[in-house]
Design goal:
CATH architecture of the largest domain: Sandwich
Radius of gyration: 27 Å
Shape: flat
Oligomer: single chain
Strand content: over 45%
Distance between the termini: 34 Å
Number of strands: 47
């Protein structure tokens, strides 16, 4: 019988990535330990059992025992079966429990709330009743790190209300990506602080506007003596990345260790603000609205100009942006057909931009059928993932089993499907009289496609044991690798082995796989074929049949491999 708490976590991760939720959101919603305030609100079981879970809570850096740390154990099959205690001066804790599997979690002010041997959103469950030592455990809490600093302008004055964006290198999707992790705002003194942070590689960016800036529209000059001064005040702060960079490609990484307190200051220099002229075809001038975005690491950040003014029919003047690379989204159409975003480099005042040069966008209408299902689950959604691995569009499936995408740029897309808590796989696409095996859809420019998608639900949980030389190995990263890993990122599944070496991989779709276990493999780009291929050669082959449902137990243990 799979452990419901872990199964819920893994199913949430599998479906959540498909639905386009960020890694930070999934971390908070899935296997991440609860905050202290949430723990105390849960029912607490005080019933004694025949087994003990005991040990010491320590500082993960110094190994010193932590007094007054809050510790909880939760039955993974029954979250209401829970006990909570506070450690004494020696950091010791002890619980009397029944036979079963339990999550062990600790929290203390100034430390990251952490589960036993936690990695990312995974942890090692404590197994009682199996002849294992559950009374000499060490629960390590990482000291919280922080990034703080001041934002000053070019004359040394504080910049208040500056937007601080903190990015972090993330491996949760199996490929290293830099995603926004959190944000902050400077106070009246220009200071900010971001905490708590765990160890990792971070980047920091600042967006702000000079408080004194004036951006007159060129076609509407200001009358009187103020007009001469307006041009000298017509300035902007470029987005600034640490250290002294205006493009994310040039940003300096900030390595943070547990307990670090990094000082990251910014000195913003005002530059002349650009006045841009964007033309709109007369046929769409009432529907046209130009929008700029700034490429930022593996995503986009909205660029906020000071004003967008219609200065004459079909002509817009945009003020307040600094020079640099941008992407222009032209929110209008020619003969009802939208154009794809255009990459532009803004470098001169009065620069004229014609957004009509992009390729025509397309629409896709999809009908959905799930094999073996009489009705669709609520909250089912479809996603289009482009060739850069980014989710380009998301559309909910309605009660009729249909979903629509509009304004899609031409290109190849992986068509993905999932509902919150359950994953699906698209195994066939019907386009007119053509049948396309798999889930890759080619969208030509200016097309209006009607497709039928055949889905299969993830109905299987694969269970087994990770061992090394015949001995149970807790804390190993267990990976289920599809037969074509490069084209099937959504079919990967992961778990962390428990104290007895057991693991459960939930939400597995029928297909051919290799299952493997890696010691300390958490920082690997495990979804890259070149990285995983060596480990796959020494893994265990597995076939999940189309009619298989429920739990599938491996016939033998999975041998744990050392990380290369």
């Amino acid at each position: 019988m799979p452990d419901s708490l872990k199964i819920r976590s893994l199913a949430l991760l599998a479906a959540g990535f498909l639905l386009g939720f960020s890694p930070a959101f999934l971390a908070a919603q899935s296997a991440q330990p609860e905050r202290a305030s949430e723990r105390t609100a849960q029912p607490i079981s005080q019933a004694p059992g025949g087994f003990r879970i005991a040990g010491t809570v320590v500082d993960a850096i110094s190994a010193h025992p932590l007094a007054r740390a809050q510790v909880s154990v939760t039955n993974t099959k029954n979250p209401n079966d829970r006990q909570v205690m506070v450690t004494a001066d020696d950091g010791r804790f002890r619980f009397q429990v029944n036979a079963g599997k339990y999550s062990l979690q600790g929290a203390k002010r100034g430390f990251i709330t952490f589960a036993y041997d936690q990695h990312e959103n995974f942890w090692t469950a404590i197994v009682t009743g199996a002849g294992l030592d559950t009374e000499g455990l060490t629960l390590r809490l990482p000291p919280a790190a922080s990034i703080s600093g001041r934002v000053l302008d070019d004359v040394g004055d504080p910049v208040r209300n500056a937007a601080i964006a903190v990015f972090r290198e993330d491996h949760r999707t199996g490929v290293s990506r830099i995603e926004q992790f959190t944000n902050a705002t400077t106070d009246d003194l220009g200071t900010y602080e971001v905490t708590p942070l765990d160890a990792g590689t971070y980047f920091v960016a600042v967006t702000a506007q000079p408080w004194y800036a004036v951006h007159p529209v060129s076609s509407q000059p200001v009358a009187g003596p103020a007009s001469a001064a307006d041009r000298t005040l017509d300035v902007a702060f470029p987005i600034s990345y640490y250290k002294d960079a205006t493009e994310s490609d040039d940003a300096t990484p900030i390595p943070i260790r547990r307990g670090d307190h990094a000082e990251v200051d910014f000195h913003l220099g005002a530059v002349p603000a650009l006045h841009l002229i964007v033309h709109s075809p007369e046929s769409v001038m009432r529907k046209f609205w130009p929008q700029f975005q700034k490429p930022t690491f593996d995503g986009m950040t909205p660029a906020q100009p000071s004003s967008v003014e219609l200065v004459s029919p079909g002509v817009y003047e945009i003020t307040g942006l600094a020079a640099g690379k941008y992407v222009l989204h032209a929110g209008g159409s020619t003969d009802g057909i939208l154009k794809t975003p255009s990459e532009v480099y803004l470098n001169s005042d009065g620069q004229e931009i014609d957004p009509s040069g992009g390729a025509a966008t397309s629409s896709v209408k999809a009908s959905v059928r799930v094999r073996g299902a009489t009705k669709l689950l609520p909250q089912l959604a479809l996603l289009l993932r482009n060739e850069k691995g980014r989710v380009a569009a998301r559309a909910p499936v309605d009660d009729k089993g249909e979903a629509s995408f509009t304004n899609i740029a031409p290109g190849k897309y992986d068509v993905l499907a999932g509902s919150f808590g359950k994953a699906y796989s698209v195994f066939k696409i019907s386009l007119g009289s053509s049948v396309i095996p798999g889930h890759v859809l080619n969208v030509p420019a200016g097309a209006s496609l009607t497709v039928s998608l055949s889905l299969v639900g993830a109905e299987v949980t694969v269970e087994g044991f990770a061992k090394r030389s015949g001995k149970a190995t807790p804390g190993a990263m267990v990976v289920l690798v599809p037969s074509d890993p490069e084209s099937n990122l959504e079919l990967f599944r992961r778990d962390q082995s428990d104290l007895d070496g057991s693991f459960s991989l939930a939400g597995v779709v029928p297909g051919n796989y290799t299952i493997l276990a890696i010691e300390n493999g958490w920082d690997l780009d495990w979804a890259k074929p070149a990285v995983i291929e060596h480990y796959r050669q020494h893994g265990q082959k597995l076939v999940v049949g189309s009619e298989t449902k429920g739990s599938m137990h491996l016939p033998g243990p999975v041998e744990v491999q050392p990380k290369l």
